[in-house]
Prior knowledge:
Two copies of one chain form a homodimer. Chain A has five helices and two strands, in the order H-H-H-H-E-E-H. Chain A is mainly alpha-helical. The longest helix of chain A has about 30 residues, at about 75-105. Chain A is rod-shaped and about 75 Å long. The interface between A and B is medium-sized, with 21 and 21 residues. Chain A binds a DNA duplex through helix 4.
Amino acid sequence: MxxxxxxAIADPTRRAILVLIAVQAMTxxxxxxxxxxxxxxxxxxxxxxxxxxxxxxxxxxxEIFYELKIEKMKEIDIWxxxxxxxxxxxxxxxxxxxxxxxxxxK
Amino acid sequence: MxxxxxxAIADPTRRAILVLIAVQAMTxxxxxxxxxxxxxxxxxxxxxxxxxxxxxxxxxxxEIFYELKIEKMKEIDIWxxxxxxxxxxxxxxxxxxxxxxxxxxK
DNA sequence: TATTTGTGAAGCCGATCGGTTGCGCATGTA
DNA sequence: TACATGCGCAACCGATCGGCTTCACAAATA
Lengths: 106, 106
């Protein structure tokens, strides 16, 4: 089963989990308190996020603390870059056009 | 069926379509040439993207040109902002810590 | 030691996904 | 008028999703 970060953030619950554990490491039970679904479902989401290599985990006794590897969010940012680039190019062209029009006017 | 932009970009084919029609408007047939799936599948993807209000379309005779409303990509960018903010805060705190350490040293 | 607590894994289930084929229909063209 | 083309829609299908319940097991606690 091939997973990627875009699939990871497709689910709204998973997005909310990511935001939670971006700030601080949390246990599955701790996370589950914020939602109306079972602890096991949360665990399943954490497993998916782990498979995307988005999580760091640290065991403390019988508790496991999960935290977002926040720098992984850059992958999305990088994907967005192509659109920013296109927007930028259009802006440049528009600028060029305005410049040309202005010169014609004179 | 509730759709959002995060679900829209979850599928790799859909992401590729978005990139294609970000540059210029294209017909379903034109888009389909770039993929190994049927024209109908492409249409299905376009429908999903439309439901997320990501597309502008223009009819020309029997052809329909689809184009990405590129500014809609900002929604993803805005979601990423929360993580940027957290990173920034950590950087500030680190800076503060280094400053404190430096003063103690003196 | 016996019990409680925190966790992951497995199996179930209805809903959805992402592809397919087979239409119907409007628009161009011979 | 007849035919070809471009398109959307509906039905089908196997795979996956995102919940759930049940279980096993290790760690903490009585």
